[in-house]
Amino acid sequence: MKILFPLALWLLACTTSACGAPRTKDADVNPPALVSGVGGAQEATSPPSFTQGDTFVVKISREVQTRGEIGPTVEFVIGEENGLLVFKSQPNAKSGLEGGAYTYRFTTDLCQVSAQSPFATVKTTPDDSSFKWPLRVGAAWAGRYEWQRLGGSGSEAYKTTVRAKVARFESVTVPAGTFQAFRIELESNARDYRNNRIIWYVPGPVSFPVKMWSSDPLDSRNYELVSYSRKADNGR
Description:
Layout: E1 2-4, E2 43-44, E3 49-51, E4 55-64, E5 67-81, E6 84-89, E7 103-106, E8 112-116, E9 120-125, E10 135-136, E11 140-151, E12 156-174, E13 177-190, E14 193-202, E15 208-215, E16 219-229
Antiparallel strand pairs: 1-3, 2-10, 4-5, 4-16, 5-6, 6-7, 7-8, 8-9, 9-11, 11-12, 12-13, 13-14, 14-15, 15-16
């Protein structure tokens, strides 16, 4: 059975500070340096399909209040549940994930609807509007959703707006290799909180996001694909 591939590169963001409760400081909005851009009428018409049980390994690096920190390398396994895409982490001694598995659910358009950790659950209703198909350079969209956290230190909810655009088609290098990717730039606002993200989505035969940069008021993070294993092609 084929199912769609959710965004492995920001899966941890919504149970960490990247998608946490609004804060009053201004976000660090300085993005990574541009890679050489590539023009052209490239287009990704629809979300890709992958096989249930595929695995994706993501490395996380972090800047916390000007202090550099290398984060965990986490393996996620793809699944399907009630019409939603499910990504579940596989905890291990090196992952840095406490308390057990983390589970993330997405629509078939790759927009997040929930993130569940052993400590709290985050919901975005109807979804976080991260993607809109087809993807092409110059495309832009906006969305509104409710961000809600349940459990942990208490419950809270915020109305959130997001603006997104496909800025360019460019080369990006991650541990898994060098790819030509759509650079999608997003800004989310809720009260005094602002989060900026850049997602690099690779179309064509690869068809998945290989990198995400995320910045919120307290830190900046990079999520990079290290490796992936597909049952259909014996992995990479």
